[in-house]
Write a structure and sequence with these properties.
5 strands, alpha+beta, rod-shaped, single chain
């Protein structure tokens, strides 16, 4: 019964910490309680607690932390378009051109001033320079 009380206390303390370490210890305490409840000796429950806690900390905690600390909002800035593929609508050269990017028509220029892209070609957006997309050939 002490194992389960410890698991509840650790899980409750996890609400204040938010780092998943105490939650992993609570999971280990639950496993230790289940092992002892099944009739195993206390030393076996302690070993099970240690193994379960180590496994949870090494394998489950990193996954939970990645999910928790992942991107919080959708990036809707212009820089989110870098790397996108676009269709050339008007020949793109060193200084001018137009592309269809993410459903909108954008001014564009070639990353290499000596390179020109013709209508219908697919290009990659390398950078966004103000209202102009800097593009390069699709590979």
């Amino acid at each position: 019964m002490i194992w389960f009380i410890a698991a509840l206390v650790l899980a409750g303390l996890e609400l204040a910490a938010g780092e998943f370490t105490l939650l992993m210890l609570a999971g280990g305490a639950t496993v230790g309680g289940l092992v002892e409840w099944a009739g195993a000796p206390t030393w076996a429950a302690i070993v099970a607690f240690g193994i379960a806690t180590a496994g949870l900390i090494l394998f489950l905690r990193p996954i939970l932390r990645r999910r928790l600390h992942g991107p919080k909002a959708l990036d809707t800035s212009q820089q989110a378009l870098v790397g996108a593929t676009a269709e050339v609508l008007e020949d793109v050269g060193a200084r001018s051109g137009q592309i269809r990017l993410d459903g909108s028509i954008w001014s564009a220029r070639s990353m290499d001033p000596s390179e020109t892209f013709t209508r219908g070609e697919e290009v990659h957006v390398i950078d966004i320079d103000g209202p102009t997309a800097v593009v390069w050939k699709r590979e």
